[in-house]
Amino acid sequence: MHLTREEEKMYDGEEGLAVEKCMEILVALGDIYGAEKLVPITSAQISGVSYKTIGDAGLEFIEELSNDARVRVPSTLNPAGVDLKIWKELGFSEEFTKKQLAIVDAYQKMGISATCTCTPYLVGNVPTFGSHIAWSESSAVCYANSILGARTNREGGPGALSAAICGRTANYGYHLDEGRRPNLFVDLETAVEGSDFGAIGYMVGNNIGGGIPYFKFKRTPSTDQLKWLGAALASSGSVALYHVENITPESKWAAKIVSDDKIEKLIVNKADINETKIKLSTTEEKPDLICVGCPHASLEEIKRVSETVAGLKLENMLWVCTSISVKASADRMGYTEIIENAGGKMVCDTCMVVAPIEELDYKVVGVDSAKAANYVPNMCGLDVVYNDLKNLIIEKK
Length: 397
What we know:
Layout: H1 5-11, H2 17-33, E1 38-40, E2 44-46, H3 51-65, E3 75-77, H4 87-90, H5 94-109, E4 134-135, H6 138-148, H7 157-166, E5 168-170, E6 184-188, H8 196-208, E7 213-216, H9 223-236, E8 243-244, H10 251-258, E9 264-268, H11 270-280, E10 289-292, H12 299-309, E11 317-322, H13 324-333, H14 335-341, E12 345-348, E13 364-367, H15 370-380, E14 383-386, H16 389-392
Parallel strand pairs: 2-3, 2-4, 6-7, 6-9, 7-8, 10-11, 10-13, 11-12, 13-14
Antiparallel strand pairs: 1-5
Helix pairs in contact: 2-7, 3-5, 6-9, 8-9, 8-11, 9-15, 12-14
């Protein structure tokens, strides 16, 4: 793989041991995937933040790297394992939280913003069309490639961190035009709404694996609905990019490819969606914890939650997961007060997937996210019920 003179200096250790290690990782990835060169990036989004997922070995690696490594581009963190502020109120242990705070501190030491969110595009990390980035959270990757038209592979945590420190990533896969061509046409025969989008994403992701679907919807989806779709595509398959007719920035280019009769076609009807929704639930029991915000909720989503629970008193606990930045807006708009008056909590920095909720007293988790429904049983060992929020709520008698 060709390296510039500046990149050779980094690779040879002239800019320190940390940079040298990171360049070795990037060059190794480039060699594996046949990249001819590295490409400069404009931002990074780094996973491997929750102590639940990286453990002591991950903490040790990050702390060691933080001794002399600093990022070269604006960089943000994926969700942590706890709400960094109200962890005790939510029931998380001091032992776990101590390790979690050490992880976040080490990342901050490298100049990475401790936003701890899977929706960096809602808190200022918004790459421009065509820009090269190195993001690692699967739903964020899908959003960046598909909705923003930026270019990133589905990086692992160490790869994204190395790219942030070196300001470069290997030029292969979704960074290239040929890596962004659709290979499945998905025709929605029915209008869809709410949790339908997650079910569609889950179904298509299972069908296509790591491919690139092209969707044709009856009605124009909102950005939140596209976010749910992408998160499900990325969790049930390994989809990192999709196109939507006349909506996503590369859809016209993709439409010319889809017009080729050789592209496989998948027709989805209402019965398919309803069948998938049933499959996403592992039990018919009522949830004792409801978690929404996977990916992290936008202000508009939080507004809808507040409208749903306004004036109610909930029997089951409700967590609305979001970033600390979006919560600040929800506080000012009065949405947080409405949700808390109903008995719910605004939870920042974390989510039901990467938090150790299995150590709390909950048995069944209600979710409106197909991504969460897919991951919670495996990562937390708890049952899930998949439905729209209004159907998950139990009111106090």
